[in-house]
Amino acid sequence: MENSNYQNWLQTRQEVGWVPLAEATPETWSALGFKCGLEVHQQLKTSRKLFCRCPAGIYHDFEHYDAEIVRHMRPTLSELGGYDGTALMEFKTRKKIVYRIKNDSACTYEVDDTPPFPLNREALEHAMRIALLLKMKIVGELHITRKQYLDGSIPTGFQRTTILGIEGDFPISNKNIRVIQFSIEEDSCREVSDHRHTRVYYADRLGMPLIETVTYPDMLTPWEAKEAAQSIRYIARSSGRVRTGIGAAREDVNVSVTGGTRVEIKGVAHIAWIPKLTHNEAFRQKSLLEIKAILNNRIPDSAAWHLQHQKLDKHEWKKLLDPSTQEWNLIAVNLPQFKGILSFFNQPGRCFADELSDRLKVIACLEKPNLLHSEAINFEESCNAGLSQSDWSKLQALLEAGDNDAQLVFWAPDEDIKTALETLEERCLLAMQGVPNETRKSLPNGITLFERVLPGADRMYPDTDSAPISIQDQMIEAARRELPEMLEQRIAQLQSWQIPADQWNHLLRYNLLPVLENLSETHKIPPRKLAAYYAQTLKNLQGCKGLPFDHQRISDLLLFVQSRALQPEIIPELLKLLFHNPNMQFSSLLALLGYEAEGIAELGAQIKTLQTMWPKGKTRGKKRDDAMQNWIMGRLRKAALGNIALPELKQLVLKEAGHA
Fold first, then answer.
1. Between the CA of residue 615 and those of 619, 621, 630, 638, 658, what are the distances in Å?
2. In angstroms, rounded to a whole number, what is the distance separating the alpha carbons of residues 12 and 340?
3. Tell me, what DSSP letter sits at residue 218?
4. What interhelical angle do 274-298 and 414-431 show, nearest 10?
5. How many degrees, rounded to 5, is the angle at CA 30 between CA 266 and CA 227?
């Protein structure tokens, strides 16, 4: 059992052509027909929310709140006489949505009890600058619309949004990426937990001003997708008008391959995740297309296909239930003609059966692990549950299964069985059609999980509570006059300063080029040297934290070094001490470093003394011609720091050692 299922997984992985991201080439993704587009969301740095007067940027912990609001989903017919697929899916889950609210960050607007205030003009001005940096064509009039949000993350069930610009572009290293549209919208709630039939949100982020940049599917490799997301971040941050930190920016990444469809990977928290997520998603779609071909060959009439199920005797099969589920029912399911499909490669470490398990978790609200199947690629899964090959044979006989069928067992309370069976059958039927339209959740390891059905296209309609806003030419020109340098110009600037490319990301990400310009002009220090202080010394100290002091503090430190006629090599050491002691006086930092003023004569005398101490015994590297000089340099470095430049010290050592 272990052998055949795992071997089938390995064989199907090979048939799909999967290779690790590090081994893939542009030809790999070209053969797949890989295409990727981005929807990048970035919070604006405003004092108030977008459509009310509540303060923006005030966050709370999960334990303390002033009120809870409970909401349930109930789908309604649209004006065209149909139901939205996402609404139907969410209704099936029977979720209770709980919103935890603090009085100082929310008001009755969030629950649609109060009409919206006029759109926040500060947010509009900030967004205008970023839109112009993306070379967007600014619209003549803003029309506020309502976009349906059916996952519960907005209590009203819709998000107010408006398009500010269309048809822009920005550069990456090998081409320009086109932008479809640029919007201003309100942010959604923060999810706190999602367990069984209850989902809990915190409402402090709700309503904060957000910009959305939507690109065309111009990225043809995962690395282009990452670079494009970074470029959008650089451009937004260069404006100085956006928030930074965890949750302030999020990417939705759309991926498709030839024969597949657009799948949205939702809420990617880190740009570094994008290459692996998009790479794995492309091969997941290729895998689903292979499964489709197999099933269509086996099952000519999918409309006549149905699964069979049988409720099991809980006492006979009690080993499958743990204490938390012992009152639940056990359901055995037969999937006709699905032999070899459940163990078919899907993503690294996953098979098609995981697609079924994901949907049971989301739609039937059955927490994982929620099923066992007859084709486990990890033999321990079945063994740990106490299922042997003879158990599966017994289940096959009970279900009157054919030789080409596959089986699974799931457990659920009475009220969830119907939904679970419908979910399993629906996903199996979708497998016969190929790649379903869906939104998927991203994980740090590059794996994605089913999140919900992709919303329909007709989910936006005019907001009758908000009047149109005319965009005057004067407003556009005022924003244009305050624009920073374009991204192309900043990159050219980095090149002209001869700053190493591995430092660019840090400098652009934190909008440090204006800082380098100012410091260089003030202190007459080359930007390349200043860049090393920020993108090497301080970056290695910061980690995930910000600087404990502002840029003026660094400017004052540079002035102190110059006033004391210290050599520049001492600056990185002082910065390290300053980072850990941000309020300490600079003279005290020098003392902490052990600095003492040393003249050339004193250093020369120390060199002569060290020559007499050169080890006589066997020393590593002693056979090198410059071994003694290097040994002396190492012992003099601390004394020389700030007193003499290291190249000059080397010349002094060579001179005193008689090798000048």
1. 7, 12, 13, 20, 18
2. 9
3. -
4. 80
5. 50
Contact assessment for residue 503 and residue 529, using Cβ atoms and an 8 Å cutoff: no
Rg (CA), the chain: 31
Which of 401, 403, 421 shows the shortest CA–CA distance to 411?
421
CA trace torsion 226, 227, 230, 232 (10° rounding)? -110
Residue 460 pairs in a beta bridge with 147
In this structure, of 149-163, 193-207, 514-528, 619-633, the range with the lowest mean pLDDT score is 619-633
Mean per-residue pLDDT, 588-605: 72
Alpha-carbon distance of 75 to 91, in angstroms, equals: 7
Which residue matches tokens 């995981």?
354
Task: Give the model confidence (pLDDT) of 616-642 as tens digits.
Answer: 544 555 556 667 777 766 666 666 666
Q: For 652, phi and psi rounded to 5 degrees?
A: -65, -45
Residues 6 or more apart whose Cβ sits within 8 Å of residue 616:
none
Q: What is the full DSSP assignment across 150-171?
A: -SSSSTTSEEEEEEEEEEEEEE
Q: How far is CA 209 from the centre of its chain?
A: 20
350 pLDDT exceeds 80? Answer: yes
Cβ atoms 261, 434 nearer than 8 A: yes
Whole-structure pTM value: 0.90
Quote the pLDDT of residue 1: 44
Provide the pLDDT for residue 289.
98
Which of 585, 488, 528 minimizes the C-alpha distance to 235? 488
Nearest-angstrom CA–CA distance, 652 and 405: 83
Cα 561 → chain centroid: 41
Angle at alpha carbon of residue 573, lines to 568 and 577, rounded to 5°: 135
**CB burial string 590-615: b at 16+ within 10 A, e below:** beebebeebeeeebeebbeebbeeee
